[in-house]
Amino acid sequence: xxxxxxxxxxxxxxxxxxxSVEEVGIGDDxxxxxxxxxxxxxxxTDTLVCGVHFPLETSAYDIAWKSVAVNLSDLAAMGASPGxxxxxLTLPENDQAWLKEFAKGLRAITEQFKIPLIGGDTTKxxxxxxxxxxxxxxxxxxxxxxxxxxxxxxxVTETLGxxxxxxxxxxxxxxxxxxxxxxxxxxxxxxxxxxxxxPQLAIAADLCGLVNxxxxxxxxxxxxxGHVLEQTNRKQHKLSAGLILESGAExxxxxxxxxxxxxxxxTQTHDWSPVLSGGDxxxxxxxxxxxxxxxxxKIAQQSGVRVTQIGRVVEQxxxxxxxxxxxxxxxxxxxxxxxHF
Length: 341
Ligand code: ADP
Ligand code: MG
Known about the structure:
Distance between the termini: 35 Å
Shape: globular
Strand content: 15-25%
Bound molecules: adenosine-5'-diphosphate, magnesium ion
Number of strands: 11
Strand order of the largest sheet: 6-8-5-9-7-10-11
Oligomer: single chain
Helix content: 25-40%
Order of helices and strands: HEHEHEEEHHHHEHEHHEHEEEH
Number of helices: 12
Structural class: alpha+beta
């Protein structure tokens, strides 16, 4: 359809800036990219489906921002510096007002993180977005999930649970009594965490060589920390022929970094699920040797990203939640992360 090309020229081609003269962005059959010397390419993909990953009424601007942000968050978790992204866009109709807002959202994140849009595909169907982003890490420096070590400190960036509480707010699922206690500013912050997550790229590249493992929290702290332990244990199985030490984690709930809204919510409801299993955090969870903690604090300060110690990697399989040092009931922890199937 001719309209498809108009649409690409009008809305997407202008976002293809920032490539070097040797590189090719939108307009040919494929993009051509140069790999910086002594670096490896990291590639990530994430799909957002309307009604599954964002509520139907989400604005086009927010959808655009989030579809790119969640991919940049994956790059951050690998310790990569972002290089660019491509966009697979399935649209139910050619709605110019919607597209204009959508392109504005893309422009905002494209400019903030200086990443060109390098290509994509446009089709007709139920609203779905697939972004593939790429970035660069120095050779052999990518941070993997599988690198955790027994004794490592477990740390997270910023605060947890805001996106999940934001979703409850957006879907009108919060108790009236509770939401009336939130200030307008607090409500805005929760919705912003949901719709406008900030990928932690400000600190990501500096984590290479400093932390042993990393993951971005998209399905909830317990589920994602679980993935780190699972990959770590799998690697240990591969490496050791005989005796295998399975590692687990101990998390101190009173140390989890919470915004004032999430703190109020927990005080009232005693429901920790937005923090432990809510999803939509897009914060980093890293494990590191204790000796690197001062350096991590220094980096955190320089980059303006809050980093908090929340627990440690232990020699016992499982994730153990403590409240002021005391183990808490099993049923409490059974809330696991979001699963699609
Ligand atoms: P082809 O027919 O070779 O698949 P297309 O007609 O799909 O090419 O796309 C033409 C150009 O526009 C390509 O460079 C492609 O990468 C780019 N493009 C198509 N859709 C999008 C999109 N949604 N976002 C960014 N670039 C796009
Ligand atoms: Mg082609």
